[in-house]
## 1
Amino acid sequence: MPMNALYAQSGGVTPVINASAAGVIAAARMHPNHIGRVYVAKNGILGVLHEELIDTSVLTNTDLAQLKATPGGAFGSCRHKIKTEAELARILAVFKAWDIGYFFYNGGGDSADTCLKVSELAEAAGYPLLAIHVPKTIDNDLPHTDNSPGFGSVAKYVATSVREAGLDVRSMAASSTKVFILEVMGRHTGWIAAASGLAARSEGEPPHLILLPEVAVDEGRLLAAVENTVMRYGYCVIVAAEGVKDTHGTFLSEAGGKDAFGHVQLGGLAPYLAGLIKTHCGFKCHWSVADYLQRAARHTASATDLAQAIAVGEAAVKLAVAGQGGMMVTIERLGEVPYTWDIGAVPLGVVANCEKPLPAEFIAADGFGITAAARRYFAPLIAGEAPPPYIDGLPDYGTWVWSIEAPCLPIFKP
Amino acid sequence: MPMNALYAQSGGVTPVINASAAGVIAAARMHPNHIGRVYVAKNGILGVLHEELIDTSVLTNTDLAQLKATPGGAFGSCRHKIKTEAELARILAVFKAWDIGYFFYNGGGDSADTCLKVSELAEAAGYPLLAIHVPKTIDNDLPHTDNSPGFGSVAKYVATSVREAGLDVRSMAASSTKVFILEVMGRHTGWIAAASGLAARSEGEPPHLILLPEVAVDEGRLLAAVENTVMRYGYCVIVAAEGVKDTHGTFLSEAGGKDAFGHVQLGGLAPYLAGLIKTHCGFKCHWSVADYLQRAARHTASATDLAQAIAVGEAAVKLAVAGQGGMMVTIERLGEVPYTWDIGAVPLGVVANCEKPLPAEFIAADGFGITAAARRYFAPLIAGEAPPPYIDGLPDYGTWVWSIEAPCLPIFKP
């Protein structure tokens, strides 16, 4: 009897993480001699700890197609870092109880660490487990892969939004708003913010200034750049990564003042910058914080990103069937014009808890823009449209109510 | 010799205002016996005051097609309320100098007032001018028209974004963010916020709470509703209109505390609500301010909205050719299932400086949701997709550099 597989989603979700799930499930069904049932843990690793498992054999091909077209984490995800030996032991106990021989964990750098720990524990215990990490992060900060599924779609959303909002500001700047600030995600790296630079096709087009965590923000230099941009082009569009820091290493978002309750404003970077620029330059400012809108925007997903999200799921199954555990699937760039890519793999040990910053050669000399090399890297990742089906004027996303398998083990008390 | 026409864009721009411009220009070309050249004032009425006119005969049919697919105000718009007799007299002087017999003004309620004043002044001066207002506002607050071009696309964007972000929050709520707040535009009315209610197809789907300017926010009731929603569904998605007020009539955005410079935070409604909910309920909150992203999102325009934006432009020309000045074009709803509509017109005097609030029968009894009547009203306005062409993964929007006609008159000094 072949052993069963378990798939789980971990960390912040993306517009295409469910496409990876569909890739895993569909590919596993092609190998009935190797893989028995495919279970999914509800809410990521929490579903393993609490033994809340979903049997995916209920999913039809129509469900799998709809998964590919639905953003968010259809099975639930979580932010939970495994801290204790008891938790690790519990995971192994649940795997044993459900005869899990394959563990497909779909996440970013933190999750790769969990995947590695589970893999090592199983090996130490002599339990036959192939743990394979399926990469996913909008932040694009996973090392040893050319890019991470989820990023291309968010990059496409942000570049599209900047191009659109830029046209708005441009048309009103003569008598109204002169500065527009878009705050984007990316944690400690500037991949997303940098990719917004694709919106500009020629000199003077937005975004005019990109603020990256990789370049400390000197407020004097920034204000001078804003004034210079407004003088030159009549308006200034700024994209700011949430993780930007000042020259003392302090997050600018933490400088954003306190709210009515005296709490430091979280994610208050854009309003902080607007206040700074209004005060020192006198320009009317508008600002936007895209937050989850960027991370869930399946309606403007990149076709390249979608294809890669599916491919990494399928490749994880191929690795498993080939007996290669303790690995993360990677995306390899083979050529740039035309863009070609393939799937690879690296040992989990070199991936876990690593962050890949934006390379210095992607950042323009003044620190406020991107280079031609960056454009060459980003361009293919946002290529192609992959709209979801629409019903009644809105994307027809799936929402599933899962039935949870009856547990085998006693309740886990951490 | 037929007299010339002048078209201008006014106030906040929309995803489809350029489609109205294309409608006016294309329709005017069909009536060479009535209408000579079609000029456009750069940056709205400011372009009239400063005699900065663009001759649209340079526009090819390809340009007109691209105008229909490009957000923002391609000719520039402005926020400028005519205040003095000298300004009005200047407008008339420019019209005389350029032999303008037709004035097509594309704006909202404030602009309708300008259009009316210009029309009345011309009449009093015995100058033959047909002034026709082409409606446009994302706020949907123009009276005497079923809806306003621009609104349907913004409604579609907001409902799409709420459905997407809702899936994101839902998938993470077990261990992370439980409350998500999206701040949307709409000035003093709740049309945009209310339309987001279309995202929910069944009980319990986001948005769970809609905060409308038409319903004073009692913070205690709001906090109880948030707690109740999280208890029931595990998470809570809130859409808040920028113009919501508390029970004392104060804008909640002004209660949002001060920024680092001691200034009241503009548009700080979403972070204010997040702080309030975090403090009183203890839930992790995320928030987004869509700002110009919603107003410029041509990539997700409503096909209905686009068709109506073109139609009101064309209809303005038909009114002009029929000799009917001092009017605003309107959209009339003829039937709901199937949705059918036609074009009408009302005298400008009944439109200018009026705001149409969300009707009471569109607001659910608890003040936090929309009724079936509201859904019937909103549903057809977001129907149909009308994506722009894409190049290199991004919408291929037009950007024009206009050549300005040499002025005839001395420089205007207000």
## 2
Amino acid sequence: MRAFFIGRFQPYHLGHHEVLREIFSEVDEVVIGIGSAQESHTVENPFTAGERIMMVDRAVGEIKNPGQKVYIVPLEDVYRNSLWVSHVVSMTPYFDVIYSNNPLVIRLFREAGFEVRRTRMFNRMEYHGTEIRRRMISGERWEDLVPEPVVDVIEEIDGVRRIREIANTDF
Amino acid sequence: MRAFFIGRFQPYHLGHHEVLREIFSEVDEVVIGIGSAQESHTVENPFTAGERIMMVDRAVGEIKNPGQKVYIVPLEDVYRNSLWVSHVVSMTPYFDVIYSNNPLVIRLFREAGFEVRRTRMFNRMEYHGTEIRRRMISGERWEDLVPEPVVDVIEEIDGVRRIREIANTDF
Amino acid sequence: MRAFFIGRFQPYHLGHHEVLREIFSEVDEVVIGIGSAQESHTVENPFTAGERIMMVDRAVGEIKNPGQKVYIVPLEDVYRNSLWVSHVVSMTPYFDVIYSNNPLVIRLFREAGFEVRRTRMFNRMEYHGTEIRRRMISGERWEDLVPEPVVDVIEEIDGVRRIREIANTDF
Amino acid sequence: MRAFFIGRFQPYHLGHHEVLREIFSEVDEVVIGIGSAQESHTVENPFTAGERIMMVDRAVGEIKNPGQKVYIVPLEDVYRNSLWVSHVVSMTPYFDVIYSNNPLVIRLFREAGFEVRRTRMFNRMEYHGTEIRRRMISGERWEDLVPEPVVDVIEEIDGVRRIREIANTDF
Amino acid sequence: MRAFFIGRFQPYHLGHHEVLREIFSEVDEVVIGIGSAQESHTVENPFTAGERIMMVDRAVGEIKNPGQKVYIVPLEDVYRNSLWVSHVVSMTPYFDVIYSNNPLVIRLFREAGFEVRRTRMFNRMEYHGTEIRRRMISGERWEDLVPEPVVDVIEEIDGVRRIREIANTDF
Amino acid sequence: MRAFFIGRFQPYHLGHHEVLREIFSEVDEVVIGIGSAQESHTVENPFTAGERIMMVDRAVGEIKNPGQKVYIVPLEDVYRNSLWVSHVVSMTPYFDVIYSNNPLVIRLFREAGFEVRRTRMFNRMEYHGTEIRRRMISGERWEDLVPEPVVDVIEEIDGVRRIREIANTDF
């Protein structure tokens, strides 16, 4: 069975990690969509799709069995909800079920006749992109909120410096 | 070292296969871009990006070592050559070198300061997407021109029937 | 004489109804543009253009004479004000006059040399899309604020459930 | 029962007329999509969507009963076949069946699970947009190949002069 | 040496003027990009790119020497930060250095390997587009905050009336 | 009086030069639009908009008086003829008259109510972009067909090598 899961992964954090751990306990193959792939270099979306592919790829290595399969697919926005499911379907390998907690994602896939499974929430206070980006900008400790391989990727691309420079309005 | 290679893969065939075999003999990681990802359901571009991900993924399993890594990334056209390299770079993991035989790809990456390596040609008469699609439409034998896993994918999606129906103008 | 009137119709309500009743008392033919036609499945724009065509079509049947003519035309946004009048003109049958109360619509058509007539406001407190959508989401009574045929359309498409699901952030 | 039929209508001609006459003999309501709505002022697509709405609207008046219903909806191209059915569905009132002779339209709707009915061909030599536009440009008689109300619309907009001027390369 | 400077110029004001005066004291040629060129007829972006070309052109005549050169280039948004530098480079004559105080502009050009120089701020309270547009709308005196030739352009196009009409929600 | 003239300028050649010489003999100010500004790095459109700005700017210096004024404005395609005039108008300083020999340009501006003046043709055999690009690719002498400053620009950007590399299909 193949599942679909989508996130923006700005950055990939332990909340995503726990959800994917659960999904891999139920299915053998997962297509992970990287949403808003065209976005980068903003406070809300600091990382490029390519950088996020690296984060997801390395982190997922920690939670899946060798026999399990993952496809990581960047998905540009189409800006029309009525076309979005067709867009996802055309860009990804066939999947049988969607895992999501996003009301719009759930609604759109259900309207299109897909099976959707609700995912659990894990420590939503801290495991949340907004909180992690806030800490990066303010210079607080964020490294405990993401898997270790993601810390490595962000260091390799000097990501904290990027988000701090973009956030800078001090002049 | 990580390399970038791009094709439309309509479908993935033995020409691609031999080029990638050579690339994997030289580098450890390859980013394979699926060009014109937004195209499908035409005689020139019958297969969706998702279907082409399946073809590439299964075929590459035949030629790379377990220790080697492949990233498969669908790339929508941006319709502006001057933006294309930036588009590719933003959508893919960082790479050190490009392998290509396409004059425009070579020129654009070289103008942007990248190292580009020319690839060899393998039986260009037969190992060519146009020829394979022509055979699919006319009912000739095409299966010998693609790796076996690609035959499987095209059968699973009933791909020959799709291209023949679209090509049909006989009424 | 042919008039042009535009609205988003999310949903069509009694405010639109009264304005159109006035317009039909002055002209014989009306082109009704459905604005932001590409939008759907959001709290602000829950209904598709096709669903809104149904609402407008059935409601207008209540207020026009058999000899009067209506054209209902979905209009996608062009995201450039300086092109918008040309866009509308190209997508619609020729018209002689615009009815509107929207400052931007008035300004753009006047700059382009068209005659624009101000419309009256009817009970703007209640006859307003925002208020009606708020009631749908909160489970209050909204059916008195739209013409009866619009209630029918929204029921046929199970529209209240859609907006409530999309608005749901309770998890 | 509601049917969907699409054409570019450059211009609406007797071939379209006979097909629609057949459709109206089988169903009560027809949604007529005006394809490539964004195109105009070229030799292939001389008329705007608004002008084509006029042609279709007046011509259809000749062939449907008073109790039958027609919706005329301009449809801009989306340039991605995999999104096209979702685009059409979002822009139009719900329909039960598609009438078409276009292989791509047939394939795309069938892949999406719709019922498609093949339409008959009527004097395809003469009742064809290309032939009619050729006659307009060369100054030959084209008026017998379209319904009379379409002749009126083309005269009102001085349409023959437009296509001849655009086609002019004699300088 | 040739420099690049970008602004939205809604409208061109004395803050831009002082920065450009400094730039012209350091380099011989300046490419001035008119950002968000596609925007017009909103409270935030009232003037078209063409109108802003006029403002910049006439104002710059006051501060550059006859031997110095200016290129004024409207730049439409590309809505993807990762493509923006390539977009600017393709649309403009070659330049050696960028002058800017915008964190995103600085970051994007530096990431692309360009030299960027910080500009000084001049009376940021008053010399600011938002403040000037606010005064235009409220009927206060704004003419002292822009160079005299800009007052002339805005009068020629009746620009204050435009922004006031668009801002009007009083009905 | 201000005139508008548009070309693709791939490259700017003596045909353009003679037409502009005539225009400058009739009017004081000319807005020169650089058409298909987004195109570059193809055999049909080898040069970027920025490179073409350089060609036009330097060449026009040869034919206008010091008291005459030129505005050079890159214009991206909008892919919809019905919006094109509004696009041009929004991106350029106001103009009173259009000079053109292109049937579509003439038709679109006349339909919008503008005065259009036909330009003469000068040695259309040789002074033609297609012929000049053909000579560049084949290694023949092209330098006599463009003004001298254009030769300089093309040498500075190593333009002949670019078009030859892109045209290369010899492998």
## 3
Amino acid sequence: MGKIDITKVRTRTGSGYPSPYDEPMAGRSRKPLGDAAGLTQFGVNLLLLEPGAWSSQRHWHTGEDEFVFLLSGEVVLVTDAGEEVLQAGDCAGFPKGKRDGHHLVNRSKSKAAVCLEVGTRADVDFCGYPDIDMIIDSKVGKYTHRDGTPYPPKRSRTLGAPKPKKAAKAMKKKAK
Amino acid sequence: MGKIDITKVRTRTGSGYPSPYDEPMAGRSRKPLGDAAGLTQFGVNLLLLEPGAWSSQRHWHTGEDEFVFLLSGEVVLVTDAGEEVLQAGDCAGFPKGKRDGHHLVNRSKSKAAVCLEVGTRADVDFCGYPDIDMIIDSKVGKYTHRDGTPYPPKRSRTLGAPKPKKAAKAMKKKAK
């Protein structure tokens, strides 16, 4: 029926950013609720930030609106204008085309934060990261330096890729 | 800065449906959080359903994904398949093109329910209401009978229209 069984939605932990930019997201987990319901126009994630974790590198989109609503815990929203604390019930939105890098940081030493994040799925988008030498252009489809030079392939598991054990099993199966 | 001051977001109560289809929404209030942040690709509303109130007439969209996440209280989600209870932390999604009429009903006699609702803003959409003789086609831009015949203009205040006092003041000003 219509209700999403959250317990059955696969959790994705970490980030597909090239190393070392993925490190602050080691304690970030997402459950893609919108995907679970078959939505395609926007994504909705149940986002868990362990103490110290970031929601992302600070970024902005040319083609995708974004929205976050804090469900529990406390995070710091960082934008060009500075820092603001978000508590349960607080929310923020980031219109496409506004080149103001934003992200959430859980500065708590003991308490996780849980957030609902919504973002458009646009065919054409450019995402800029004001603090680091990284961009992603939908025409290219992968993270590059600002001059377009690609990053070397990641050695560690990337977001959405099969777990090492599963991948080994699949390769074994293929080899038979 | 980025955080939305929810206390400053205007509450819209009731529905723009033609009478009497607007009656079950008399106890429905929305705060358009996404609009407050300048988002245009999808809407995000903080939806309050007083005891007895419905989120909408049961409906489906051809062009717009929808998603709801219950923040507090309890509602019944009604779809073609039947009824399901949603409690705080439960959610549901409704992909565009799936012609399964859905809505939320607060059957509590004393407790309001609060929900976050997200919906795409599509240029082209058709919305069907399986339980009543009403449709809305983006090509027409207003509620009509299924055969396209328009409904008479509403006497009562429609959604988003100025409050009677304000409207009277504006007319007075214009007359000067």
## 4
Amino acid sequence: MSAPVEFYFDLSSPYGYLAAQKIDALAAKYGRTVDWRPILLGVMFKATGMAPLTEVPMKGEYSKRDFPRSARFHGLSFRMPSRFPIPTQAAARIVLWLKEQDRARAVRVAKAMFHAYFVDDIDISNPDAAAAIAAREGVDPAAARAAVDDPVVKDALKREVEKALARGVFGSPFVIVDDEPFWGLDRFDQIDRWLASGGF
Amino acid sequence: MSAPVEFYFDLSSPYGYLAAQKIDALAAKYGRTVDWRPILLGVMFKATGMAPLTEVPMKGEYSKRDFPRSARFHGLSFRMPSRFPIPTQAAARIVLWLKEQDRARAVRVAKAMFHAYFVDDIDISNPDAAAAIAAREGVDPAAARAAVDDPVVKDALKREVEKALARGVFGSPFVIVDDEPFWGLDRFDQIDRWLASGGF
């Protein structure tokens, strides 16, 4: 039994959102499962000195054009959120808290969070809004809302981000296949060949 | 007659080198020619506040793994140069100077510069070395060496970089197809569809 493909994502990452629509099918093609791991890009940016794409001169303007174009290229819905980027602690804590109980539901909630933010323009940095999105997937909204402020969940997310940094994860999406790191939706073609061939 | 595809590159850019092996065939598939435009990433980095990839914490380590892996993925030779990155004024001036006289030869010399740096580990920041590479393509090495210090050529390259910045070019490779900007070898699949369909 092969190890799961590790899929790291920040719920405020446009390319993370696009990749989230594709990673399960890509892994399944080679009989692999996916371990969905929410991270916080803000912490990564501090470690690398990087900044949110849209705040970099020139690159920011380009990104705002490339996000929707890349979505169209991949046949996916996308609307630039009114507020961008946003802190994703609340949404990520709910996903991580759910993961302990029901991994499949956690994935569905992560996808619902991405959809809410990048299609319906819902500000999922708001804990109540994030809990309401989770409720769409059958989660008790009061319990989800409580998870956002739960010190155990907070600490668990903090440790997740630290572990990701220690693994060399610095962006979103970031995929690790059998210890081989791939940054970006742009590398899904390389991931495909890596999974098919066991490395190249 | 469609306008040429604009291909911007820095001769010290690994992804620029890889893209340089592919851009002519990609454009030719759709009956388009390519305008090869050398730029200086150092100037772009100042404008955007970006840094050479290999100097960014974490991303640098990843890049050193991704460069050769991407080369293998595309079936191209690649060796990480002993000295990286390097200033590419000398090599870029020779290419630009040649372009005024013989565009086809300028392209061959640009490719030879890339090959010398990324396969043969020749430091093309050295003006004599750069002139010697040009000589391999039938260029008079003394004339090429003189072009490096020619104020007219220096000024022409400076204006080229300024024009590129004004066009929104901030990285290498950078391709503009009918005013649509594409950054990175990663976008060659989108360029392909754009050329095929006239936009999407």
